[in-house]
Amino acid sequence: MTLHAHDSHPKPHAKSQPEPQPAIDARTLRDAFGAFPSGVVAVAASVKGQLTGIAASSFTSVSIDPPLVSFSISTTSSTWPLLREAGRLGLSVLADHHDAVCRQLAGPREERFTGLPFKVTENGAVLLDEAVATYDCSVHEEVVAGDHVIVLLEVHEVGGGDGEHPLVFHRSAFAKLHRDDLDPARLDGRINGAEVDRGADHAPTAGTVDTDETVEIAASSEDAA
Asked: Which domains does the chain have, with CATH numbers?
């Protein structure tokens, strides 16, 4: 009688490859990005004696130590190759009456600063007079990310402008902040993985540790510039 050996370790069945997922429709993705409201900043400088600037809705704070902020710009931008040559860049947070200013900064390059009140620092940064806040920065690093470049900036000086409330950019249109039916108290918890700044009056005393473990909220920034 002939004996047939049986493999005690049968070969595993070949894993079926997952079907490729259809690409996200660009219009659908833009609409989803636009659902996240943001502010708008003017990024401007005097480059070789020429005023150059753009409007960006992708501004975000990055780090306190060292002081860093960022914004992103399309790889097809014709202004950024000129603007990045500046030794210093001025970032101005647009106020809620700056909707026309934003439209102007998004228009023809030669008309972007016509009639606008601004100052040029000794280092060439251009800052709008009526901004909510201003930042005097230099390029720290640039990271290519798909069809945009993330520009990381080192902050050298900050200032406050005459504007009180920021302009809001939402679903490709402008809006204003309304807080009438909201709790005006500062958030008592964590955001971006760190304790929310509660102001000087709530700073922990020396030798104490803040152990608040309330919900952490992850935040991101829309890039609709």
From this structure: 36-181 (2.30.110.10)
